């Protein structure tokens, strides 16, 4: 297999060669090709992986972890105590899978067109580490192959460099060094835990103080760190902000814009088509079309709000995120109409506030949203009445999801679990035509059949999660650019992507994010200074 590396840096999208056959890029909207990287093909795929990182516009990462430890400590009121708990987890647990999604903005294409390459790296820590039973159970339920990990996982050592060279050779720490040298924007979802694990696993021993850690990060990623959990909560202000919900909501809105032909903001996604020997490394992840709700469907209220349910796969209610989104949209529209009728009865003529951003928002999220107090009070009362009437438990202190093995997308579950079946009846709603599309091209039926043979509809895999994270970010950037208008502001947005979200990391249960900055009262760690001299080959 050959990889035509010079194509990656050219104006045209990359072309992957396999033997004598040259493949073409495709806008396969039905599934996402994820390259499965293990110890037996890591060296072979290394050149393509490094070039994809270097030529990308931004990089999205996601991890699967062997555990997190004490969940309550991870949500301590004091952020410094929370950081200490995360450090303990990162030092005693390990990354078992790393997802990398490289998004490259294409020139001479429709605006906001991206070529995306997705990699899923199976890792195996060479040191002793803790793996939690809940983590094993969750990962197995979502298709993780522990036999493959222990037989073909890419080995690595944690903490400070242990005699090897982090900037030479073909190993995971050298790959992380290439990521730093690329100086690309880094995108994560609920990224504080991810960054701590990445730092401890592939970079150096975590510093003891949070201020030192953020100072190090600000120099490691000069192009900025973006958290799509923060973007979803405080910029897009979606009803829910867990990863799968946010991705499918953005994808649905993007598809509606494309299929309707409206001039509104939308993105185009393209992938490489892999053939020959390389195709054996591809794991296709299905992006199913959004269905139409017909009749009544019982949806799990807890999963609807937080993307997590204590009953897991045994829950008798629906965990279909697509149906949840359609239900939320219908509830939002019904509440808007109800509010409008109420105002008309009172003789009110002001319709500017008909649409409230609080429609359908879980009650525990309302305090974190900047809204008009009078309108928020009305929505809170209505939400409370709805919750009580349907038997929905009132959400209290945010809590790390105990049902997930890696860091939770939605660290927002109540401290007490009410395991009584909570039903929400979703009435008929209509989805947009062609809602499965992410671009304008439709793949041939024959190609779809071939792809379907290896396609997997399961989510919660590091590679596909990284792709979803990058998609949310790309769509949010397009939306922000449209709202700002075209001109000088557009150029500033293009340079900094999302200026209002740069270096702001979501903190569960907090109204303010963690700012990734180096303050005048904090210093970089000694290990970081030594590492950066190696990365940039100059003193800092």
UniProtKB/TrEMBL annotation:
Residue ranges occupied by any C3H1-type domain in the UniProt entry: 294-322
Protein name according to UniProt: C3H1-type domain-containing protein
Compositional bias ranges of the Polar residues kind: 423-434
Keywords: Metal-binding, Zinc, Zinc-finger
Domain of life: Eukaryota
Signal sequence residues: none
Alphabetized PANTHER family for the sequence: POLY A -SPECIFIC RIBONUCLEASE/TARGET OF EGR1, MEMBER 1, TARGET OF EGR1 PROTEIN 1
UniProt-listed InterPro entries: CAF1_poly(A)_ribonucleases, RNase_CAF1, RNaseH-like_sf, RNaseH_sf, Znf_CCCH, Znf_CCCH_sf
Residue spans, zinc finger C3H1-type: 294-322
Similarity comment text for this entry: Belongs to the CAF1 family.
Matches recorded under SUPFAM superfamilies: CCCH zinc finger, Ribonuclease H-like
One Pfam family this sequence matches: CAF1
Organism the protein comes from: Ilyodon furcidens (goldbreast splitfin)
Biased composition (Basic and acidic residues): 370-388, 440-459
Disordered as annotated region, ranges: 335-459
Composition-biased stretches (Basic residues): 335-345
């Amino acid at each position: 297999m050959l990889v035509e590396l010079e194509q990656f840096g050219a104006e045209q999208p990359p072309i992957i060669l396999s033997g004598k056959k040259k493949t073409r890029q495709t806008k396969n909207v039905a599934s996402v090709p994820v390259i499965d990287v293990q110890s037996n093909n890591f060296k072979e795929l290394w050149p393509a992986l490094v070039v994809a990182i270097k030529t990308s516009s931004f990089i999205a990462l996601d991890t699967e972890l062997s555990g997190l430890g004490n969940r309550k400590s991870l949500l301590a009121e004091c952020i410094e105590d929370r950081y200490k708990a995360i450090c303990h987890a990162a030092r005693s647990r390990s990354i078992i899978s790393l997802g990398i999604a490289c998004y490259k903005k294409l020139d001479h294409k429709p605006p906001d067109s991206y070529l995306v390459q997705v990699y899923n790296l199976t890792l195996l820590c060479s040191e002793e580490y803790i793996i939690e039973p809940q983590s094993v159970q969750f990962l197995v339920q979502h298709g993780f192959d522990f036999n493959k990990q222990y037989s073909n996982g890419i080995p690595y050592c944690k903490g400070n460099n242990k005699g090897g060279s982090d900037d030479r050779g073909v190993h995971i720490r050298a790959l992380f060094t290439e990521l730093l040298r690329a100086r690309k924007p880094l995108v994560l979802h609920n990224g504080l835990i991810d960054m701590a694990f990445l730092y401890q696993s592939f970079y150096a021993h975590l510093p003891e103080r949070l201020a030192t850690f953020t100072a190090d990060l600000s120099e490691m990623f000069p192009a900025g760190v973006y958290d799509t959990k923060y973007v979803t909560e405080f910029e897009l202000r979606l009803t829910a902000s867990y990863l799968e919900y946010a991705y499918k909501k953005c994808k649905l809105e993007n598809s509606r814009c494309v299929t309707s032909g409206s001039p509104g903001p939308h993105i185009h996604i393209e992938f490489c088509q892999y053939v020959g020997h390389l195709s054996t490394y591809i794991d296709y992840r299905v992006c199913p079309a959004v269905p139409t709700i017909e009749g009544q469907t019982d949806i799990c209220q807890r999963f609807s709000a937080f993307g997590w349910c204590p009953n897991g796969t045994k829950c008798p209610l629906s965990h279909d995120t697509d149906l949840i989104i359609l239900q939320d949209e219908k509830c939002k529209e019904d509440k808007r109409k109800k509010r409008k009728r109420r105002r008309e009865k009172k003789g009110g003529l002001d319709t500017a506030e008909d649409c409230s951003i609080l429609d359908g928002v879980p009650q525990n999220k309302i305090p974190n949203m900047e809204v008009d107090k009078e309108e928020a009070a009305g929505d809170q009362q209505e939400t409370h009445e709805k919750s009580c009437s349907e038997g929905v438990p009132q959400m209290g202190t945010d809590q790390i999801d105990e049902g997930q093995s890696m860091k939770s997308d939605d660290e927002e579950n109540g401290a007490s679990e009410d395991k009584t079946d909570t039903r929400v009846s979703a009435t008929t709603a209509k989805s947009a035509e062609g809602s499965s599309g992410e671009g304008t091209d439709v793949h041939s039926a024959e190609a779809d059949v071939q792809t379907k043979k290896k396609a997997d509809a399961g989510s919660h895999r590091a590679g596909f999660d990284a792709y979803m994270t990058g998609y949310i970010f790309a769509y949010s950037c397009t939306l922000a650019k449209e709202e700002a208008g075209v001109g000088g502001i557009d150029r500033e947005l293009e340079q900094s992507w999302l200026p209002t979200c740069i270096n702001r990391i979501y903190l569960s249960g907090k109204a303010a994010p963690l700012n990734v900055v180096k303050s005048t009262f904090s210093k970089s760690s000694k290990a970081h200074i030594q590492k950066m001299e190696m990365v940039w080959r100059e003193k800092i």
